[in-house]
Design brief:
The protein is α/β, with parallel strands linked by helices and about 140 residues long. The chain has a single domain, classed as Glutaredoxin (3-Layer(aba) Sandwich), CATH 3.40.30. Helix content is about 40%, strand content about 20%. It has five helices and five strands; from the N terminus they run H-E-E-H-E-H-E-E-H-H. A hairpin with a 5-residue loop joins strand 4 and strand 5. The relative contact order is 0.17.
Length: about 140
């Protein structure tokens, strides 16, 4: 029992630490949605279990859509003012904005990677191809 508790605490710590770099934390919330760019906003909390399950997906999406779509995470337990601003009722909530900042789609709860990719595709955003990745890294 004690080992299980310690293991859970270690995993929780690692997930919280790992999330720190997983997606762009919105430092200036006035810039959300990101002007001129399709934006996926994930509103959640670092201690919320479904939100934690989203972290690796969000990191992958951020890498797949580098410079094509902005991926932003806001921890609403640390920034409760953002709850009212975006009118959320549950976490996690994902909101997709077009380049003009207009909300196009909203989803409450865990959102699978395939569903995120499909929504971005509907909005005209394709993942970065291998050629583009090589160009961006040079």
């Amino acid at each position: 029992m004690k080992r299980t508790f310690i293991l859970i605490m270690i995993i929780t710590f690692i997930l919280a630490w790992w999330h720190g770099g997983a997606t762009s934390e919105a430092s200036d919330f006035k810039e959300v949605p990101v002007p001129g760019m399709v934006t996926m906003l994930d509103l959640g909390a670092t201690r919320c279990i479904p939100c934690k399950l989203m972290f690796p997906i969000m990191q992958k999406i951020e890498n797949l859509y580098e410079n094509k779509a902005a991926v932003v995470f806001i921890d609403v337990w640390q920034r409760p003012d953002q709850v009212r601003r975006f009118g959320i009722q549950a976490i996690p909530t994902q909101i997709f904005f077009d380049e003009k900042g207009k909300e196009i789609y909203r989803h409450e709860g865990f959102m699978a990677e395939a569903a995120i990719v499909a929504q971005l595709k509907k909005m005209g955003v394709e993942p970065v191809g291998p050629e583009e990745k090589n160009e961006n890294s040079q």
